[in-house]
Amino acid sequence: MANIETPRRFPDGFFFGSATSSFQIEGRSNDIPQGDSIWDTFCAEPGRIEDGTHGLVACDHVHRWREDIELMASLGLSTYRFSISWPKVIPDGTGTVNEPGMAFYEAIVDGLLDAGITPMPTLYHWDLPQALQDRGGWTNRDTAEAFANYARVMAERLGERIPTWMTLNEPYVSAVLGHVTGEHAPGTTNLEAGLAAAHHLLLGHGLAIAQLREAAPHAELGIVLNFTPAEPATDAPADVALADVRHGFDNEWYIHPIRRGEYPTATVEALGWDQSVVQDGDLDVIAAPIDVLGVNYYTRQVLSAVGQELPFGTPRTEMDWEIHAPSLHRLLTWLNEEYGLPKIVITENGAAMPDNDRADGRVHDQDRIDYLHDHLSAVLSAIDDGVPMAGYLAWSLMDNFEWAKGYAKRFGIVEVVPETLERIPKSSALWFEQLARTGVLPASGSDPH
Ligand code: IFM
C-alpha cells in the first residue's frame, strides 16, 4: 500500500494527534506524593521487566510536561490522549483526593487548552493502586465501584474542560496479560481470575459511564479497546476453529457485551466459563451507550492448529509483530457493520523500530513512516467505505517504558535520548507534522529530512 499513485485528503474535521500513558512517561516527583501502583510492585520483582528497568523516572514528564506540550504544538498536533494515574490522584484507590496529584492534571489540561490542543484523558491505563490490588484488584467486584467513584471525582474536577473521556485502555491486556499469562502486573496466571478481572473491568467501565454522564453531561464518552484480528492459516477446520476462538476471546469479548449486552456465546462455551461473577443487571450496566470507540491496532494473528510460526518471512516490527495494514481496514469495516458505532477514533497505532539510522543526529525512521503511511491509508479506505472515523492518534508521542519490555522497544515519533531525556523529533514526527497540518496523505511516505 505504500505506493498508491496520488495523494489523498482526510475529511475536514478529521484530527491528528498522539497518545501516551501515565506510567509509561511520567515518573515521580517529590512534590507529588503518590501511592504505589501494581506496576511499581511488578517492576520491583526480579525478572519481570526484560531490561530490569522501572517507571520511577520514565520520560520525566512529571517535570517536563510543559516542554512536551510545546513539542506537540510545534508538530501541529491537535489532540493529545494521555492517561491519569489513579494512585497520583487517589493514592489508595478510594478515599481522600491527593491535591498535588489533581493539580498536576489540572495544569496539564490547562496547558493543552492554552496550546490549542484538545485533551483526551483515559482514566485507567493499567496503573491500578496497589492498595486495591492488596484487596484482590480487578478480581474483586469492589474495584469496579472504586473505579466509578474515581471517574466521578475526575469529571467533577476537570469536567468542563474535557470534551472526551475514555474509561479504560485495553481491558483485554489488563485481564489476560495481567491475570492469565502473567506477563503484566499483577502477574498471576489463572484463567478464572482473568475472566473475573475482564468482567469487573467492563463493569467498572459501565459504572463509570453512568457517573461521567451525570457529572459531565456535555462530554463524549468512550472506551479504548485493542483488536488483533485472527485469521486461520488455512481452510482446514481446525485452523478455522482456532481462529474463531481467538477472535472471540481477544476481540469480541469486550465490544460484544458493550454493544450487545451479552458475552459472545460460542466463546463462553469454548472456554467453559460458568459466569458466576456476573450478577443480575451487570450486562445492562456494561451496555450503556457510548459516543465513541477508541481502536488500538498494531498487528494481526494468523493461526495454525498444528502450531507453526506464521506467517513466514513477512515484515515485522521490533516487537516481532507482523506489519499488516489491510487488516486495519478490514477491522474497521467489520466493527462498523457488526456494531454500528457512532464514531471511531484510532487511539493507538504505531511501531517499535530499530531506530539505528541517525545520520545527522536525527533518527531517520523510514520504516516507521512507511508503517504510519500504510495504516493511515487503511483508515482512508475505511472512510471511503462509510466507517465514521473521526481521528488518528499515533502511538506514541515519544519513546517510553514499554511495560515488560522496558525501554528497549521504542515506539516514539520523538526520540527520548536515554542519558539526557532530551526530546528529538524523528523523521516520522516531521512527516506526521506535514500530514497533521495539511490533512493530505502523500502518495508514498518519504522521509522529509
Ligand atoms: O505501549 C503500549 C500501550 O501502553 C498500550 N497499547 C500497546 C502499546 C504498545 O505495546
How does this structure look, described?
The chain contains 15 helices and 14 strands. The protein is α/β, with parallel strands linked by helices and 449 residues long. The protein has one domain (8-441): Glycosidases (TIM Barrel, Alpha-Beta Barrel), CATH 3.20.20. Strands 2-3-4-5-6-8-10-11 form an eight-stranded parallel barrel, surrounded by six helices. Helix 3 runs parallel beside helix 5 (99-114) and helix 8 (171-179) packs antiparallel against helix 9. The chain is globular and about 60 Å long. It starts with 7 loop residues before the first strand and ends in an 8-residue tail after the last strand. 51% of the residues are buried. The mean pLDDT is 96. The structure holds 5-hydroxymethyl-3,4-dihydroxypiperidine. 5-hydroxymethyl-3,4-dihydroxypiperidine binds at residues 21, 24, 170, 296, 348, 395, 402, 411.
User: Bound small molecules, which ones?
Assistant: 5-hydroxymethyl-3,4-dihydroxypiperidine
CATH class: Alpha Beta
Helical proportion, percent range: 40-55%
Assembly level: single chain
CATH architecture: Alpha-Beta Barrel
**In this structure, how is the largest beta sheet organized?**
8 strands, parallel, barrel
Rg (CA only): 21 Å
Question: Which consecutive residue ranges, at least 5 long each, have pLDDT under 50?
Answer: none
Mean pLDDT: 96
End-to-end separation: 22 Å
- Write down how many β-strands occur, each being a DSSP E stretch of 2 or more residues: 14
Give the name of the CATH superfamily.
Glycosidases
